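Thread amino acids onto this structure.
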């Protein structure tokens, strides 16, 4: 590793830790400050924080890797995600910002659901908190896998204190994220997300342009068509099930706690501005990620390079095409993508453990200072679970993200949308949808039906999970609605 690259990365780490200290001094005295930044995030910060925590390492690793292997047909995942994000900003964001305040100033999604359906409050808080912690441990592990791959392929060549290069990378990534998340809470996570989002989008725009101008646009296209005549086709080899599975990624947005919690924290009146900024950022970032995968494949083919893991194409291009200092900046962008999501997920998990377990069952009269301390301890515990899951170096980033994304999307997606928009929904319906969505997703994965279904192509687990949860909510709510107001 060359000195300029190390300097660039060191500056990045110092900046992240500095933001953590700044946030610690500004907003960690009470639970609302530690968990939601006082509900006063500027629109730009909220928008890029939602985007950066959403996209994670899969944007620079998993998605380019999929494009590298299969071609433009994999872009349907990005198209589905963008459509889902648009719907999420228009349907969920304004209503969730308003209703979480109206229903008892809820600080977490489980608390909001409990306040919205008081007759089933305990069941909703406990079940949703369990689902959040389980799936976020898996989701955070996906980010740590990305960190391990990055350090293994770029920074660390020899074992460190008995740990393999991969595992050393996992541990270092986790430690840095824990440092600023535990210290600065939600404000630190949001501000670092904002900075990381800016770094990510610049890197995703610059890298494919450098490759294209260096290798030539026409030559790049010829190289990709030489791999497969349909490599640049959106419909090359696309099946109906494959199309539905890719587009269905967009359904997951409605149920991602680490994304929609940003809506709760936007300052009053700022949702519209945040929506415009967030969607513009996402569109540019997704196009850039597609460019990295396609241009990277052409560059590898034209120059006779060897890439053992397609999900490291971003790392390969950063190391081979740029000045060492710029390489450091680009690798910092990858770390930014990884760490922004992990920090958000750890914080949401810790908030559920604190507000929906500790304060609900163990210490109902816990002081604000005590709650913040428990939140920090909970953050560390979830991180340890994620480290254990990520210890397998063969774990695929995109596969782990897909499983966790489907779990949240099916369990919480129909529940959130209907609780915000359907007045006849009942607490019993909410519990039924939450349990049904989670169980169907877990069962679908366990049976391997996401890989192969009835002897044919696998169906992405979010599709049956989302449909089953929606039906469960609708049917049980119809059966249990008593024409009695559900809220006070």
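Threaded sequence (488 positions):
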């Amino acid at each position: 590793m060359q000195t300029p690259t190390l300097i660039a990365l060191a500056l990045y780490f110092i900046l992240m830790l500095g933001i953590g200290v700044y946030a610690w001094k500004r907003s960690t005295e009470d639970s609302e400050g530690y968990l939601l930044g006082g509900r006063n995030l500027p629109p730009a910060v909220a928008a890029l924080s939602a985007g950066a925590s959403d996209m994670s390492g899969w944007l620079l690793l998993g998605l380019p890797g999929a494009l590298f292997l299969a071609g433009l047909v994999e872009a349907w995942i990005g198209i589905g995600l963008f459509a889902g994000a648009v719907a999420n900003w228009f349907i969920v964001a304004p209503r969730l910002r308003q209703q979480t305040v109206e229903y008892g100033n809820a600080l977490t999604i489980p608390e909001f659901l409990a306040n919205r359906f008081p007759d089933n409050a305990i069941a909703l808080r406990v079940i949703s908190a369990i689902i959040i912690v389980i799936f976020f441990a898996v989701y955070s592990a996906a980010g740590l896998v990305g960190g391990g791959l990055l350090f293994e392929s770029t920074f660390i060549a020899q074992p460190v204190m008995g740990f393999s290069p991969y595992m050393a990378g996992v541990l270092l990534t986790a430690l840095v994220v824990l440092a600023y998340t535990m210290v600065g809470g939600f404000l630190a996570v949001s501000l670092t997300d904002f900075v990381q989002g800016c770094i990510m989008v610049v890197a995703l725009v610059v890298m494919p342009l450098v490759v294209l101008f260096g290798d030539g646009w026409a030559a790049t296209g010829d190289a990709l068509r030489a791999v497969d005549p349909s490599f640049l086709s959106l419909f090359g080899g696309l099946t109906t099930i494959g199309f539905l599975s890719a587009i269905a990624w967009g359904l997951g947005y409605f149920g991602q706690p680490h994304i929609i919690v940003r809506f709760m924290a936007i300052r009053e009146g700022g949702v519209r501005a945040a929506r415009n900024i967030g969607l513009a950022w996402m569109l540019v970032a997704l196009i850039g990620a597609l460019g990295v995968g396609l241009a990277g494949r052409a560059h590898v083919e034209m120059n006779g390079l060897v890439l053992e893991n397609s999900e490291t194409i971003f790392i390969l291009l950063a190391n081979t095409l740029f000045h060492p200092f710029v390489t450091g900046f680009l690798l910092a962008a990858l770390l930014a993508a990884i760490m922004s999501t992990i920090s958000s997920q750890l914080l949401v998990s810790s908030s559920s453990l604190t507000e929906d377990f500790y304060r609900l069952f163990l210490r109902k009269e816990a002081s604000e200072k005590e709650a913040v301390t428990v939140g920090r301890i909970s953050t560390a515990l979830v991180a340890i679970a994620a480290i254990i899951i990520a210890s397998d170096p063969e774990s695929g980033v995109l596969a782990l993200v897909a499983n966790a994304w489907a779990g949240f999307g099916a369990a919480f997606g129909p529940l959130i949308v209907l609780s915000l928009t359907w007045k006849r929904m009942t607490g019993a319906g909410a519990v039924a949808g939450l349990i049904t969505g989670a169980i169907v997703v877990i069962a679908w994965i366990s049976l391997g039906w996401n890989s192969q279904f009835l002897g044919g192509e696998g169906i992405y687990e979010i599709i049956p999970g989302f449909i089953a949860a929606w039906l469960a909510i609708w049917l049980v709510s119809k059966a249990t609605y008593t024409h009695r107001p559900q809220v006070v």
